[in-house]
Specification:
single chain, mainly alpha, 338 residues, Integral membrane bound transporter domain-containing protein, membrane, Memb_transporter_dom, transmembrane helix
């Protein structure tokens, strides 16, 4: 029963509605603008660049601006890399190798630069999703949309930090992530590299499902937790939360929503996901799963049941791979502590 309660228990709130609203707004305006221009094919570039707003969500102005600007550069670099992979038709096995490099390098850079959330999940997600596009948009247009969306998110971050300091100057900010020792950084990078490589290999073998990015992301997702127990818990939460989210998604996607209504749902789900992600990862995934599926449908409509099956199979397989990596790739110190 204790484990069941952990899946439902919410951690104390940290005024999460403020960053959740800011992040949702950072997604909403670019998508609405692209919808008005009838360029829904460009939403993928805006959406991944808008992930900039997720970083440094509770940090004060100076460090938030620095870390969000850094994350914007990294995310845009990942978009450019993903565009090049799509343009060169790299293939599923080449994509697995690219995901592994992105994951390892991204995780080490994020740790070295003090980015929070830690890990390389968003970097890998951007690279693999854009690289999987059958026909990417012209490079200048794609990157222009990405730069504009990232700049908007950074601006919202600055305004949000200033608002927080005025309304609650004594607010306690979350502590920055602990600096990893060199040996810990090595294990950190190795776990991320191997998880993405094996997740990419699984995606190549599951190519019939057509959404390989989800297997890679699910494999990488547990790795960013701070300790072994946290990584195992995160992997299990990924599976349980996604399965419950698929049920919610099936109900939501059964309705033939107009594009504007899909955008409204995406923004709402983004807000709810960010509202709960720091408090309970399983609950957040109830909203992350339909969010990912709706964003996929908005940019490239496809069959609903195939989409649900792909999300289920690839997430379960990817998360199982991540759990395997977490269990096998441990330092001697981590083995002694279990």
């Amino acid at each position: 029963m204790r484990y069941v309660r952990e899946f439902l228990q919410l951690a104390p709130a940290q005024r999460d509605h403020l960053p959740a609203g800011r992040i949702a707004l950072g997604v909403a305006l670019p998508l609405l603008l692209l919808l008005s221009l009838n360029r829904l094919d460009l939403t993928i570039y805006a959406s991944f660049a808008a992930f900039t707003g997720i970083y440094a969500r509770h940090e004060p102005l100076s460090s938030r601006f620095r870390h969000q600007l850094t994350s914007a550069v990294l995310l845009l670099t990942c978009e450019a890399f993903g565009w090049w992979l799509a343009a060169t038709h790299i293939g599923p096995w080449g994509l697995a190798l690219a995901a592994a490099v992105t994951s390892g390098v991204g995780a080490v850079l994020a740790a070295a630069l003090g980015l929070r959330p830690a890990g390389s999940l968003f970097f890998v997600f951007a690279v693999t999703s854009i690289a999987s596009l059958p026909k990417p948009a012209p490079f200048g247009l794609a990157m222009g949309v990405g730069v504009a969306a990232a700049a908007f998110s950074v601006t919202l971050g600055v305004l949000g930090a200033r608002f927080s300091e005025r309304t609650r100057p004594d607010e306690l900010h979350l502590p920055p992530p602990n600096s990893l020792r060199e040996v810990e950084l090595t294990w950190h990078g190795l776990r991320h590299t191997l998880a993405a490589l094996l997740g990419g290999a699984a995606a190549a073998l599951l190519a019939a499902f057509g959404h390989g990015a989800w297997a890679v992301v699910a494999a990488v997702a547990p790795i960013s937790a701070q300790d072994h127990q946290g990584r195992v818990k995160r992997g299990i939460q990924r599976i349980v939360g996604t399965l419950l989210g698929v049920v919610f998604s099936a109900v939501l996607l059964a309705v033939p929503w107009q594009p504007w209504a899909q955008v409204v749902w995406i923004v709402t789900l983004q807000f709810l996901a960010e509202l709960f992600v720091a408090r309970n990862y399983s609950v957040a995934l109830l909203f992350v799963t339909p969010l990912a599926l709706l964003m996929t449908q908005l940019a490239h409509p496809s069959g609903t049941w195939g989409l649900l099956a792909s999300r289920t199979v690839e997430t379960v397989v990817g998360a199982a791979i991540g759990l395997g990596v977490v269990w096998v790739v441990r330092s001697a110190e981590e083995r002694r502590s279990v």
